[in-house]
Prior knowledge:
- It is built from 21 helices and eight strands.
- It is α/β, with parallel strands linked by helices.
- The protein has an eight-stranded mixed beta sheet with strand order 3-2-1-4-7-6-8-5, with helices on both faces.
- α3 (43-80) packs parallel to α19 (433-445), α9 (253-269) crosses α19 and α13 (357-367) packs antiparallel against α14 (373-389).
Amino acid sequence: xxxxxxxxxxxxxxxxxxxxxxxPGVFSWSLILFPIWGSLIVPNWVAxxxxxxxxxxxxxxxxxxxxxxxxxxxxxxxxxxxWLKDLERLYPDRxxxxxxxxxxxxxxxxxxxxxxxxxxLLNQTYPKENLHIMLSFEExxxxxxxxxxxxxxxxxxxxxxxxxxxxxxxxxxxxxxxSANTCWGAKHAKQILVDQQKIPIENITVTSEDADxxxxxxYFANVTFEFLRSKTPHNHIWQxxxxxxxxxxxxxxxxxxxxxxxxxxxxxxxxxxDRLINFSSYTTSLKHxxxxxxxxxxxxPEDYRLFFKSYFATSGKFSVKPIFLxxxxxxxESSTWWKTFVNQYEQLKRWAWGVSDDAYIIRQYIIAxxxxxxxxxxxxxxxxxxxxxxxxxxxxxxxxxxxPPLLNEEFNRSILGKTLPQATSTLLTISLVxxxxxxxxxxxxxxxxxxxxxxxxxxLQPLEFLLLPVVGFFFSALPGIDAHTRLMLGKYIEYRVTExx
Length: 501
């Protein structure tokens, strides 16, 4: 028996695509506005909505607290482990045959940032002759990009197995950004590494590395270990803990708080196999990427798209595996505080634009018939939950409880009306346990305090977390609803590189 919904989606790809793009914005705006108009018509429903969301937030907070602590200790142990020694012991004849291709897409990155990134690759414990670097510049960067390429080739040219430079041109139909640039660089590197140098593609991993990322020295040794011990090495992506600590002590307090929350959340997510999806800088099999046609060139968010493209291409037999080692990245920063805040907002709007992938994900979910129903449903629902609720969370947990008593006098006199603020306040106070955990884990993992930083500012550091309600509005709710609304109205954003200093 034919599935009528699937048939409709196959017959009307444009119409259904547009419907699915409108859906997140309608959903988020409906949940944000419901406490206002609902307080006038169905205040009891609003109260149950607020309480239900508060309970949900307590659950998420406690889950984060427990798993973040667990991840912290696992990362600590993994950093101290000698992965090369285990490779030599368990795979003495195989591990040196594994090569790692690293694609670094770059546009307008300062030369010192690129030097630091390449230097961090030189610090890897894995043999450097097995590391192959592709610096993928954008052709539109012009002479500045050409000069940076020459300097980097001159300084690092003989220190890796290979280091290449390519210049990605503007191609009709492509969306300018990391995904298209990574695709270009990976295809060119494959032609040299596999087709010319004859290294078996089955023995090569490919890493998409942000231009400001610095992998822990044991990263590629650890990835090699996981690659070799897997029965299906071409059906995984490996993801480290992306922590925004490179410049944590330089950025303003609101950005520092955000960086702390993001960093601990990235540690926590490594413990959630059901939610773990590659983000920012990650590694997979070059054979697999070649099999599925590389990164898509018509999208902005490349990480989630690559995962779900892989997931549906392999009939659900694909997963992201954790690497319990840090991948150090930059927090948003610019030359002035105001520019830094604008930088952070634009970065988060770009991340929130990941909701644009949901149309693709839902469409593939409906069309795919070769994946068990509940397996694909749970995988997709968890992603949609995170994306759809991104702009809603702040409104639901911060101000929604005030509307029913404020806007409906009759409800305010009821028992539920009198207890709603106290009940939600109690639940959200309990959820603050996660903030304590975030502060502790962040303090244990961030780099040591610079000598130039005054001791008083460090003592007062816990008070920075009092900024979270305000920070959450301007750097979570607003960019989230901005992205949802633009997608809903068909006003697609362009890729905007986060400025580096």
